[in-house]
Prior knowledge:
globular, 18 strands, alpha+beta, 35 helices, 11% strand, five-stranded mixed β-sheet, eleven-stranded mixed β-sheet
Amino acid sequence: MFRARLIPTLLSALLWVIPPAVALAMPGDSATADWLRSLAAFLALLIAPGMQIIRLLEGRGLRIHDSAKPGPLPASWKHLARARRAGRREPHLSPWQRAFVDGDAIERSICLIAVAFVFSLTLSAAAAGLSMAAGLPLHFAVVLSGLACIFMTLLPSPSGSDHGPNSRVPRERPDATTPDSEKKPPPYIAFFQAETGKRRTLQQKAGIVGPSGTAKRRRTVLAFAAFTGLLALMSLGAENIARDRMWYMAYINSLTQSASPSWAEPFFGSGRVVPRFAANTWIAALAAWTTFAQAPADFIFEHAAPLLLIPLSGAAYLSLARSVFGHGRAALPAACALLVAALSAYPFFGSEPGGLFTRIAEDKSGGLLIILPLVLSLLIQSLGGEVAADSAENDTRQTATATGKSFPRNPGLTACALALAALASTHAIVYLLALAVFACMAPALMLSAERVRPARVFALAVLMAILALPPAYLGLQARRSIVPAADSPSVMSDQSRHPVLRSHLRMDRLMELESGGPIVNPRLLADPVIMLALAALPIAFGNRRKRWGLFLLCSSLPALGLAFTPYVSPAFGRLITPWMSYRALWALPVGFLLAVLLRETPAIISSHPLSRKAAAGVLVILLATSAFNRVPLNRLPPWGPEKAAYTIDQDGDLSALLQHLRTLPENSVIAAASGLAELVPAYSARHILAFSDRGTAVFAESAAMAQRRLRANTLLLNPLPAAADHDKAANYAAAAFGISHIVYEADRCPLGTRTGIGRFSLCELDAEPAGQSPAIAAPGLPSGLSAKQRSRFDPGRSFGIDHLAAHPVSASAAALVAAPGKGLDCNVDASAYALDGMLSRRRAGRWSGRPLTLSCSAGFKPEVGNDAAFLYVEANLPRAQESMLLTLRILDAGGIVVIRRYWIDFQESAGASIDLTSGSALPLQKIEFDLSPAYLPYINLRRLEVRAIS
């Protein structure tokens, strides 16, 4: 027994020795070393422990995706030829040999890799949690995972025992002393074999099955593996950038680089724990992987994770399809599921398709595309066993049961608990969807012809309810942080200006109703691929007594009901962070429905084989034409297409800036433009003042603090150029939040000492900026401020700048002096304003470090300069809330320049009027002004005019 465990133990030990050895042998900045370390760390940390858990579970009879009867081996393989030459009718292969020969064994091996990943995910996250609770770095978690893996390798497996209800039945071998002609099976076995042979002969004549089912199955599963590998390689062909990617990378950097890691937000350094990202298994496992591989977090998240996780997603879908459709029928549904995730807007319904490539490393994506299929697969197996590949295996199973032989049982509560714990601690909404599918399918199975033990259903229900408590608590806490308890979320418009909720409204994910709304906008399903898949629902209803039909209905109907039913949809939306009810559509099995449509429709249309083939060809052509425009051609060979100028990988100045920021002290706080600020915590692991309005609102202490941070960031990026040393507002902002550096994408540094890095300027501020003010009571300030810093903060007047509340204004009595294209020169194209009356300006690029500023100037004629002049500004903000910094420079006839600044607070489409002649006794000659938005990355103005009243 010791010799049998020696080789697995040595292999496990080598897996844990290879990454450090590679790290010492190869330079740290080598891409090859990063790849080797990442791959070795992935196998050691996220695959090997799960394989040991599977070995221990299977040793106790709890089999996962077990076949009722091993299929015949292909005659073309050398093992079979060698066996025939030795005089045996059938080769006796080890499980490892059969895993590469038998099609069903290959399919099962692929599924077990995904199961091992989920089990390892739970173990790695538990080790990370223990290390964080003890205040130790994640290196301790890696050591714990390694010790647990080696300990499990040393544990004996009871599979060799011949006693107990879970013991394996030894395979019957023919007696060598008996001639082959006299070896006959028992009469009842011969009867079943004869009936099976007749049925298979009739199926072959009808064209239902091929002459060699096992060989065909092996070719099919190998083709599926090649297809999955192609998708994984396509992830290397372009940047894998998504909207929320920087958030996860910032957390990974914080966990890996801290001596005592915690779940405190890594952006502002406030110490606040955001419930949405607290105790997250997925993030903890990725952080442990990054620590073990000794590779940069961006390399793991952008390159290594997509390449390795996309095959795991395929294996997870193959596991679910195997449990739903049966052995040998799982490749087509799994391939369709991957194809839908790669080519359509499903499942995230964002502005860009291809979430399989860009989002696979996020927790919600990993939970939805990897963990959820595994959880549903284990639950289905635990409820009612597996579906056999054909009637022959069903007959064999019944025969074996009738003779009293004991076959290995389906996965027990231990396997389900490990997978459910991984899902519950990864994403609460995805876990809720698993609960919904289980609540629908378990009673249906109990009422169907399948034999489901009520005790097993009750045990699984109790287990899922217990594991639902932590995600439910964290989800409710996250909901309170977005919608305060004092605000009633019953009417959508009450909170529609919140950045998080506004983003869903802006993408038209919801639709208002006169009563019973809002519901999910049906436009989300207006995708050709999704619409084709939904056409298979009637087919699933017609086959509702089959396992696959029941699963498709139990997954689709609750999802569609929660999304589109009045009164139910808004209730579901208020439960999961208000008005995100569109996420119920995540449970919709679009890929499986598409596979059913391709497989079942030809047989429904005609019984003739040629007609069925023609119908299948028409469906494939229709699907190909519908999805052709979604093919990510930039990810296909030849790789390395021309990218935009401001991409992260190819921008040398940007990479040098981020690398330099990494060398700053850990307590540094940096102010930068919103796009560039997103990169600082993700790539440099340094704190920032603010970034996007959505991200700042999520991670700040409150909505008011988020707005304060955004306004401070705008002030620091747009200081007074002529009197920088006396700009009290900018000094207030810098002192209030302890700003140490400001980044400009220009050769400028109005505050502090400049360090040039390519086209960027890094300004280091003094420890005590100029412009002191008397002590002012400042409640609600961020923690960690000194007395001098608190004395310079004026929360009542927003850093000493007056506010102008925008309201509807009328300019009918005033004469037009200047407008864009008519005497008002702005740094935008005025032709669009002349056509549709809209003046728009966007930021230079997503990662640009230039602040968004609309700069305009206008001169006054002598006969107009004596009149009362006003500047009218009207914004186009149907849902958003904005605060713009207006900086006025007024030149009068005496040559005196007057500088004034205001915050203009906009809501919806209100306007503001600014009196230009207030406080000036001389006629105006010229005005210059800058408009800088504090919250949004764009400026949309309905009106920008200078008018005068005689």
